[in-house]
Amino acid sequence: MTSAARTLRLPADEAWDLLADARNHARWVPLTRVEVDGPVQVGTRIRATSGPGARRGWPGIVDRMVITRADPPGPHRVAVFVKRGPVLLGEARIEVTAAGADRSRVLWTEDVHLAHVPPALGRALLRPFLGLMLRAALNAAGREVRATDRSL
Amino acid sequence: MFDVADPVLARVRAIALDFPDAREVEAWGRPTFRAGTPMFAVYGVHDGRDTALVFKPDPDERPALEHDARFYAPPYHGAYGWLALDLTIDGDWDEVRELLDGSYRQVATKRRIAALDAR
Fold it and tell me: A131: which of A31, A93, A149, B90 lies 20 to 30 Å off by Cα?
């Protein structure tokens, strides 16, 4: 299991809208495009394509997910994305918890392995890459929030 | 109690001592970090978790940290509202910096916080 967490200067509902919507992840995860077939709710399917030309519409490594949990508004909300291959299996979990009225803490956890590879080996192979990816994504989200901070 | 060549301690030290007037003081056989006088971090927990960071969470952030299973109340300091996180050399040092920043702001004087904000 790999996770990264950051505190963002955003109210919890806005942080949820930003982080739980996988379309935004495409801005923060390098070389990746994301397509979704609906809003952030249970059953919505997500398709992430990664590769050198993925953002220009080229084919790449495809990661299919379905949302299996998307909590209603509240001080602590969880979204779960189950990965259905063909390359990655497992789940990603995004938790948004209010930290006062104007900040939130985001915890992004990935427990994934590779299809056709024993899960323990797949996890070990992915761990270094996933840690860097999650940190880079949350740092990018944080920069985006700071760049649009209206209180500064 | 602690190893002076510990690479995790070296990273913690580099981050902690970067705050205004921060200094390292050994106490209870552990490295502690002070904002002038008041303490904002301890390295190591007295139950054998030698690479843990003990810090004073921002009260607003505390509920979020309690939802994150990596954080725990350490012996002694936990009774005063401090939390601990086990660190590894390949861990998330941006998160550590953020936690230390929050802890520093809990204990530092207004003048030192202003100096930090002015950076």
Answer: A149
Show Cβ contacts of residue B109 under 8 Å, excluding neighbours closer than 6 positions.
B35, B36
Polymer length of chain A: 152
Domains defined for chain A, CATH in brackets: 2-147 (3.30.530.20)
Class of domain B7-117: alpha beta
- Return the H-helix or E-strand segment holding A81: strand A76-86
- Residue numbers in B near A7 (CB within 8 A): 61, 64, 98, 102
Q: Does A69 touch chain B (CB under 8 A)?
A: no
Question: Which residue type, as a one-letter code, is found at position A18?
Answer: L
Q: Given an 8 Å threshold on Cβ–Cβ distance, is B63 in contact with A76?
A: yes
Chain B residues with CB under 8 Å of A3 CB are 70
Q: Flag if A107 and B64 touch (Cβ within 8 Å).
A: yes
Domain boundaries, chain B: 7-117
ipTM summary value: 0.82
Residues in chain B with pLDDT < 70? 1-2, 4
Q: What angle do CA B9, B16, B91 make, to 5 degrees?
A: 50
